[in-house]
Input
Amino acid sequence: MTTVTYVTRKFKQPYGGFLKVSEFEMAQFGDDIVLNDGETLHPSIIGMATQYLSEFMLGEKKEEVFKVSLQGAYNVGLHNPSILYLENIQGLDDNSIINACRLSGYDVIYRMGRDFYRPVEDFMIDQNTIENIKTMVNRSVKFFNDNGPVIDSGMTFEGAYTHKIRNGDGDILTADGLWDMKVSKNKITNKHTLQVLVYYLMGLRSSNRERFKQVERIGFFNPRLNVSYFKYIKSIPSEIIQTVEREVIGY
Output
């Protein structure tokens, strides 16, 4: 596998990482909502459904938001049920969330292969899980509306892939920032900070490079913890950028 995620997880960084987590500015948000315990879906499905529904609620077309899921379903002859799930995603009502979770389950086919797929019709999606996803999507929409406008989401990097990285897609691009969504109970690590830096550097060499030239900061939003982290590009030493371009990406 030569995705951005895989390469940045495996790359041996110097002590503390190229971009230390402590160097990122953190902001904690509050809405007086406590998420429910005991979710009934795998965290990866909840994460994808939360991210995709957030992009949809921020104005992206659902066909674009769920394009990887649809392609995964198509690859194994499950196009028809995937279209039905897509058609039943209308907003942030319970039925839309359930269908988004099932549709997100096809992602793994495209990204990792059929052997990792589990039948989406067997997903147990209880009310606690639905309510948590709804809360996290609402948090995400508020964050990106406050820090937007959103310019693009689910960006790929045509023209920027290399022999080391042949696949990968970013999360959300705003007028001044490139943001990665993390829906985890854990804090970010230096593997995550390297990942978002790689997305930014690849964006500068992609067919959408003009959009990335406007980026002033890279960061993360975690709707589960309701926290954001970011770092200004101008504060990253040029020698780190050059090393990552050469050794991690392969430029």
User: Anything to note?
Assistant: The radius of gyration is 18 Å. The beta strands are 25-28, 150-153, 172-174, 177-181, 217-222, 227-232. Residues 221 and 228 are 4 Å apart (CA to CA). The longest strand covers residues 217-222.
